[in-house]
Write a structure and sequence with these properties.
The protein is an alpha/beta fold and 333 residues long. The chain has a single domain, classed as Luciferase-like domain (TIM Barrel), CATH 3.20.20.30. The chain is built from eleven helices and nine strands. Helix 1 packs parallel to helix 11 and helix 8 packs across helix 9. The longest helix has 20 residues.
């Protein structure tokens, strides 16, 4: 039996659109959160990126607080906090404070990558040693900081103790699948830009999962791209904004989110096309019927517990409609 009645959530990198600025991007972030909350989306996560002029998601915890302040029900969190950039104690204090103000609405997704280039990562790091390798211990520290007082050491997070902020392990390779399984935590795979190891990571996580005080059984989330529209043809046109976004990544260029184009081949080379399409190949694309078919096929193969969607669409109303179509598809199945 394929479970198609699953929660659906949103990931936002807070991109700047062509012709707009940082404030407009933040306003759009809040507007989309309010809209998807009304649609019944479960959670709204904000990513962490640094030294990227086209994204406004560097001070992730501040954006999460801002979103919590302007919504009332949807869970808000990080997708994720890139833990090598931060002291676990500071993260615990920040999220413990938000959890105190907004109880039972906060999620903490954790990644082991810096979310930027190595020179910027060096400027961000709290120490000179490679804190990527301390990621497992840092996660355990955070679990302790949010836990019961009697399990605390001398250093405690105030606020933070006994807030029990839910922690999710993020990954784009197989490494974090092992950690999430060992700690008995939910696992979120970043298929929206790195789908290559998704199948293997899901298998590892489920096969090696150890029940914990946090979870009895594995909880598998997958983040993917969704470009839904009234017709397949319209979705194909709107998807060129996403294709230009990933072309940006391939080129290392710094161009704001672009309007759709009718001729991508005039923009990219064959090699760039292949690289961009490889990154974005896990995309639900098309009309409502097409999205339904792709979603059912995906669930028949992977049986995930939750889908998190990111929609790189230039027109904000069409972006909202894309999320609306996806939610309707899942609600109707």
């Amino acid at each position: 039996m394929v479970n198609t009645q699953i929660p659906v959530s949103v990931l936002n990198l807070v991109p700047i659109r062509e012709g707009e600025g940082q404030k407009e991007a933040i306003n759009a972030m809040v507007d989309l959160a309010q809209t998807t909350e009304k649609m019944g989306y479960k959670r709204y996560w904000i990513a962490e990126h640094h030294n990227t002029p086209t994204l406004v998601s560097s001070a992730t915890s501040i954006l999460i607080k801002h979103t919590l302040e302007h919504t009332s029900q949807i869970r808000v969190g990080s997708g994720g906090v890139m833990l090598p950039n931060h002291s676990p104690l500071v993260v615990a204090e920040q999220f413990g404070t938000m959890a105190t103000i907004y109880p039972n609405r906060l999620d903490l997704g954790l990644g082991r990558a810096p979310g930027t280039d190595m020179m910027t990562a060096s400027a961000l790091r709290r120490s000179k040693h490679d804190s990527v390798y301390t990621f497992p211990d840092d996660v355990r520290q955070l679990l302790a900081y949010f836990g019961p007082r009697e399990q605390q050491g001398y250093v405690k997070a105030y606020p933070g103790i006994e807030t029990n902020v839910p922690i999710y392990i993020l990954g784009s390779s197989t490494d974090s699948a092992y950690l999430a399984a060992k700690l008995g935590l939910p696992y979120v795979f970043a298929s929206h830009f790195a789908p290559t190891y998704m199948d293997e990571a899901i298998s590892i996580y489920r096969a090696r999962f150890q029940p914990s005080e946090f979870l009895d059984v594995p909880y598998m989330m997958v983040c993917l791209n969704v470009i839904a529209a009234e017709s397949d043809e319209e979705a194909e046109i709107e998807s060129t904004t996403m294709k230009q976004f990933f072309l940006n990544v391939v080129r290392g260029s710094q161009i704001p989110l672009q309007p759709p184009t009718l001729n991508m081949d005039a923009i990219w080379s064959p090699a760039e096309k292949e690289a961009s399409n490889s990154m974005s190949r896990l995309t639900f694309l098309g009309s409502k019927d097409s999205i339904r078919r792709q979603f059912i096929q995906f669930q028949e193969k992977y049986h995930v517990d939750e889908i998190m969607a990111v929609s790189y669409i230039y027109d904000r109303d069409k972006q909202k409609r894309s999320y609306e179509i996806l939610k309707e598809v899942i609600d109707e199945n």
